[in-house]
Write a structure and sequence with these properties.
This is UDP-2-acetamido-3-amino-2,3-dideoxy-glucuronate N-acetyltransferase. This protein is mostly beta strands and 191 residues long. It has strands at 5-6, 11-12, 17-18, 23-24, 29-30, 35-36, 41-42, 47-48, 53-54, 59-60, 65-66, 70-72, 77-78, 83-84, 103-105, 110-111, 116-117, 122-123, 128-129, 134-135, 143-146, 151-155, 170-172, 179-183, 186-189. The structure holds coenzyme A.
């Protein structure tokens, strides 16, 4: 038996799978066929649209709508009032419900408050999208991006700290001590 908790004002439609220890707060709506992992926190006034898949320990802050076509891996953080999209050229009079574009958010990535994610791209694992950014491109793993349109201004560790690479392409996270290598424009954790 599932042990998730939902506030009495939350609405959960049929056919959803919700993992143990997930919490769903006031006035949120989980639509049909969603899969939500364990230990997630779904804040207030959140909409999770049909068939959305969220991994484990995903934190969705207040006022976020996660639309059909969006997938989030484990440990993703969706900041307050960030905005996804799933149609690139919406028209009220043209039905494009069979043309939803996909947006994938990789493990451990963070989307800042009020950021807008234009559909059809992947946000790489552990990328950090600054508050208010407008993402219009693929975002590499560990990238730090800000602005409208968003531009990469650096790299961040899995703990969310700036990484400053030396001449050999090596950097150390000041909090975790984890080591990273920047090679051929890509960052990997090496220890
Ligand atoms: C992007 C972010 C992580 C950068 O933090 P940082 O590494 O400490 O960066 P700094 O504050 O040193 O800023 C570096 C530069 O980027 C700019 N900048 C920082 N955040 C920015 C943002 N969100 N949008 C546009 N520019 C930004 C700064 O003005 C500064 O510009 P400058 O070099 O011209 O002076 C942080 O500002 C941010 O937006 N965090 C998200 C917060 C959030 O949404 N939390 C949600 C949960 S409450």
């Amino acid at each position: 038996m599932a042990t998730f908790q939902a506030h009495e004002t939350a609405v959960i439609d049929p056919g959803c799978t919700i993992g143990d220890d997930t919490r769903i707060w006031h006035f949120s709506h989980i639509m049909s066929g969603c899969t939500i992992g364990e230990r997630c926190n779904i804040g207030q006034n959140v909409v999770i649209s049909p068939e959305v898949v969220l991994g484990n320990n995903v934190k969705v802050q207040n006022n976020v709508s996660v639309y059909t076509g969006v997938t989030c891996e484990d440990d993703v953080f969706l900041g307050p009032s960030c905005v996804f999209t799933n149609v690139i050229n919406p028209r009220s009079a043209v039905n494009r419900k069979d043309q939803y574009m996909k947006t994938h958010v990789g493990k451990g990535a963070t989307i800042g408050a009020n950021a807008t994610i234009v559909c059809g791209y992947t946000i790489g694992a552990y990328a950090l999208i600054g508050a208010g950014a407008v993402v219009t491109k693929e975002i590499p793993p560990y990238a730090l991006v800000v602005g409208n349109p968003s531009k990469q201004i650096g790299w961040v560790s899995e703990y969310g700290h700036r990484l400053y690479f030396d001449g050999d392409g090596l950097a150390v996270c000041p909090e975790s001590g984890e080591k990273y290598l920047l090679k051929d424009g890509e960052v990997v954790r090496i220890g």
